[in-house]
Write a structure and sequence with these properties.
The chain is an all-alpha fold. About 75% of the residues lie in helices and about 0% in strands. The protein has helices spanning about 5-35, 45-70, 80-110.
Length: about 120
């Protein structure tokens, strides 16, 4: 049996870790951009989700796919691919919720004038 080096496993793990770093960076950026807002409790989640949705979604989706390739190749050790695939799922769910929230807010604030405030 051929022993395969865990190249795809470590790539998947690294991509998912970068996805979590992107989540943290977008959240911090969104909070700092809306910290001085005139509204009590600034909507930093909307800024963070709109700024961070593309890199987080892309990194975690590619990490999930590369992890699947690593598991399919039966790389040893296989734990980085499995951990990467497991940890890629919550950010992808967060991306789906962020898209839903942004769409609901956008539709609700579209008309009539003054509907959001």
């Amino acid at each position: 049996m051929i022993r395969r080096r865990p190249i795809f496993s470590w790539i998947a793990f690294a991509l998912v870790v970068l996805g979590y770093v992107a989540i943290a960076g977008a959240t911090i950026y969104g909070y700092t951009q809306t910290a001085d807002a005139f509204v009590e409790g600034p909507p930093w989640f909307a800024v963070a989700s709109s700024v961070g949705i593309i890199p987080v979604g892309a990194l975690c989706l590619v990490g999930l796919l590369v992890g699947i390739v690593g598991v399919a190749r039966r790389e040893k050790p296989g734990w980085p691919a499995i951990v990467g695939m497991i940890f890629a799922l919550p950010p992808l769910g967060g991306v789906a919720v962020a898209v839903y929230v942004n769409l609901v807010v956008t539709v609700a604030c579209a008309s009539p004038p003054g509907a959001c405030g």
